[in-house]
């Protein structure tokens, strides 16, 4: 995928899941209470990086996600800090009851890693695509929900997770994402969105890979004299109402882009905040009530309208609606 090239971002040659594995190992080295729970997918999620160095703190529960979550909750109760890892689709669809009861309602300190979120896992097909995971997590009020957009923010999120009170959900991805932030001294704070590009004419709000796609779209808009602000909404809960409201008031039009179903997704929550505080024209880029077939990730994002070109087109509509209002 060619994310971030129009915006001149430095490319990363490793998938975000590999970056997660490195970050998880760093956290395990720093905190002997960290344990990792695996659903027999450590070679895909890259949680296996911890197994290689700390086998006594790595537990492969097998293809049994409900047990995976239950064991993780038990270890949390015994004083450990569990990272509960599997594909987002498997955890949220197979073990939702256990996540709800044993983790969310109990408000335990633990992190659930939903790997392979979105459609960009490609040829693994729709059964393994987590396209409803953020909506499902949104139904669990005690969870902090984080969607990193680049290698540095993934490191920052994994490092921060054990310091956050209560349960945390972090979405990971199979595809590489370009560098938006420096690896050292990353400007990242849970619950605080980052403005990664200034602009006065409209705002593009994204999470995950859609942030770099939004920066590409902003570069394209600039060629037409339209200056777009780009916001990395890396924390889905707690959502940064202040930054969202300021963007709506100051730029007068908003586009929300997400690699997720629009129904129940990030855009619907952003729209609620804007409707309450500063109603402006809005457009939404995401999946529209469809299960995506197996295919090359590049082909899938084009077919299902998740590219910088689609964000560009949505931004033009929002900008025109702003001028007419």
Looking at this protein, list some descriptive labels:
2 domains, five-stranded mixed sheet, 12 strands, 325 residues, alpha/beta, Rossmann fold, single chain, globular, seven-stranded mixed sheet
Fold topology:
Layout (H helix, E strand, L loop, with lengths): L15 H15 L3 E5 L3 H4 L2 H6 L4 E3 L4 H13 L3 E7 H7 L1 H10 L5 E5 L17 H6 L5 E3 L4 H10 L7 E4 L22 E4 L4 E5 L2 H14 L5 E5 L2 E3 L3 H11 L2 E8 L4 H12 L4 E6 L9 H7 L4 H17 L1
Parallel strand pairs: 1-2, 1-3, 3-4, 4-6, 5-6, 8-9, 8-11, 11-12
Antiparallel strand pairs: 5-10, 7-9
Helix pairs in contact: 1-8, 4-6, 9-13, 10-11
What does this structure look like?
It is a single chain. With 325 residues, the chain is of the alpha/beta class. It contains 13 helices and twelve strands. It is globular.
The residue fraction in helices comes out at 40-55%
Q: Give the strand content.
A: 15-25%
Number of helices: 13
- Average pLDDT, to the nearest integer? 97
From the N-terminal CA to the C-terminal CA, the straight-line distance is 37 Å
Number of domains: 2
- Find the CATH topology of the largest domain: Rossmann fold
Task: Give the ordered list of helices and strands.
Answer: HEHHEHEHHEHEHEEEHEEHEHEHH
What's the level 1 CATH class of the largest domain? Alpha Beta
Instruction: Tell me the structural class.
Output: alpha/beta
Number of strands: 12
- Radius of gyration equals 19 Å
User: Which CATH architecture of the largest domain is right?
Assistant: 3-Layer(aba) Sandwich
Strand order of the largest sheet: 2-1-3-4-6-5-10
Biggest β-sheet description: 7 strands, mixed
* CATH-assigned homologous superfamily of the largest domain: Thiamin diphosphate (ThDP)-binding fold, Pyr/PP domains
**In one word, what is the shape?**
globular
């Amino acid at each position: 995928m060619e994310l971030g090239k129009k915006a001149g971002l430095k490319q990363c040659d490793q998938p975000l899941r590999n970056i997660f594995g490195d970050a998880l190992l760093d956290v395990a080295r720093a905190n002997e209470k960290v344990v990792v729970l695996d659903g027999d997918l450590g070679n895909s999620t890259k949680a296996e990086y911890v197994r290689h160095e700390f086998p006594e703190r790595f537990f492969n529960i097998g293809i049994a996600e409900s047990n995976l979550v239950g064991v993780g909750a038990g270890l949390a109760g015994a004083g450990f800090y569990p990272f509960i890892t599997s594909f987002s689709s498997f955890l949220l669809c197979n073990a939702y009851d256990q996540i709800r009861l044993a983790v969310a309602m109990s408000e335990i300190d633990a992190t659930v890693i939903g790997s392979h979120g979105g459609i960009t896992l490609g040829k693994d097909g729709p059964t393994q695509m987590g396209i409803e995971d953020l909506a499902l997590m949104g139904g669990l009020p005690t969870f902090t929900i984080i969607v990193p957009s680049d290698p540095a923010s993934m490191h920052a999120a994994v490092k921060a997770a054990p310091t956050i009170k209560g349960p945390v959900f972090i979405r990971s991805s199979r595809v590489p994402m370009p560098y938006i932030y420096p690896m050292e001294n990353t400007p990242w704070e849970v619950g605080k969105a980052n403005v990664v590009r200034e602009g006065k004419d409209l705002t593009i709000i994204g999470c995950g890979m859609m942030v770099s796609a939004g920066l590409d779209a902003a570069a394209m808009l600039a060629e037409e004299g339209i200056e777009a602000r780009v916001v990395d909404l890396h924390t889905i809960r707690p959502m940064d109402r202040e930054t969202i409201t300021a963007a709506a008031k100051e730029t007068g039009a908003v586009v929300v882009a997400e690699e997720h179903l629009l129904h129940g997704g990030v855009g619907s929550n952003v729209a609620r905040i804007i409707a309450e505080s500063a109603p402006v024209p809005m457009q939404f880029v995401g999946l529209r009530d469809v299960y995506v077939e197996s295919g090359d990730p590049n082909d899938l994002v084009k077919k299902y309208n998740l590219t910088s070109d689609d964000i560009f087109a949505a931004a033009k509509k929002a900008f025109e609606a702003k001028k007419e209002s």
